[in-house]
Amino acid sequence: MSLVEIKDLKVHYPIRSGFWNRVTDSVKAVDGITFNIEAGETYGLVGESGSGKSTTGKSVVGLEKVTSGSILYNGKDITKAENRRKLDYNRDVQMIFQDSLSSLNPRKRIEDIIAEPLRNFEHLSKDDEKLRVLQLLNIVGLDADALYKYPHQFSGGQRQRIGVARAVATNPKLIIADEPVSALDLSVQAQVLNFMKKIQREFGISYLFISHDLGVVRHMCNNIAIMNRGRLVEIGTREDIYNHPLHIYTKRLLAAIPETNVNQRAAHRASRLAVEKIYEDQQSKYYDEDGMAYPLVQVSPTHSVALPENIAKQLASQEGEVQA
Ligand SMILES: Nc1ncnc2c1ncn2[C@@H]1O[C@H](COP(=O)(O)OP(=O)(O)OP(=O)(O)O)[C@@H](O)[C@H]1O
């Protein structure tokens, strides 16, 4: 059994219009996605803005009402509030947000911000609580003088590390990290990601790592799902996605990773243009008549792509993949 099993999850937002404010349509933010997260792994959920990643993340933490489908945590469906209560789910599953300035209360000192989940769930003595907060600050590489400061007195990278410390305070099993480093400079990104990895090793945490950037996800994730307009277009291991991408949408995301090596820039630009040309010429091959992704088809034990079966198998064999 996987730690988390997401099965045919749908989150549709009603659109109301007219004098009677009736529901006339819906935004299919998440439209039938299925994937599993194993204990101790980092699972990447990647797609452009608006593809439904945050809605998925919020559904897993229980912040979003699910339209249909299930989210099993240790085998229990946590889309039902009574199961969340029974399982101590709010303690076991935490979230790290992209924007640390607005997700950390500006009027509270760091000591109180990090202690908040402890106060909700652990009920420690004042001394034990302070000791625990100091340990957590230490884990994310911050000094004791941070205790009495406010969020605005820190850099973006430091604030994100405070967000990580707060998220791990209750020893969670799963952390939903929604674009945790997108707002940071490249050098600071690496620092925060390293802290997240260190904490994962120490505490055996699983991450659902949400990002629009396949470049960031590469060094973090064992398995990756690519999301496009509420559906999954490709699922695979890191090797499958980076070395044998099959869907044009995945190839476009890969081509969008900035090239840092100056000598490679011309070649990188040429391959990006080539991918864009394939996208323009062959879009209809990759999407159904409504412009939506097809259901996923398995092409190897670890790799699935959203294409008609014959095309999926043909592309996979061109890539030299073992067929399921
Ligand atoms: N509360 C809401 N009511 C109506 N539509 C919503 C709501 N929340 C999200 N949406 C819509 O659902 C779709 C998916 O949004 P979501 O925020 O999950 O995407 P995302 O991939 O996380 O993008 P971003 O990285 O920009 O947040 C978008 O079209 C968005 O406008």
Automatic annotation (TrEMBL):
Alphabetical list of PROSITE patterns matching this protein: ABC_TRANSPORTER_1 (PS00211), ABC_TRANSPORTER_2 (PS50893)
GO biological process annotation, one example: peptide transport
GO molecular function: ATP binding; ATP hydrolysis activity
Domain of life from the UniProt record: Bacteria
InterPro entries from the UniProt entry: AAA+_ATPase, ABC_transp_ATP-bind, ABC_transporter-like_ATP-bd, ABC_transporter-like_CS, Oligopep_ABC_C, P-loop_NTPase
A family per Pfam: ABC_tran
Keywords: ATP-binding, Nucleotide-binding, Peptide transport, Protein transport, Transport
Residue span, ABC transporter domain: 4-254
Keyword Nucleotide-binding: yes
Family: Belongs to the ABC transporter superfamily.
Protein name as catalogued: Peptide ABC transporter substrate-binding protein
Species assigned in the record: Levilactobacillus koreensis
UniProt lineage: Bacteria, Bacillati, Bacillota, Bacilli, Lactobacillales
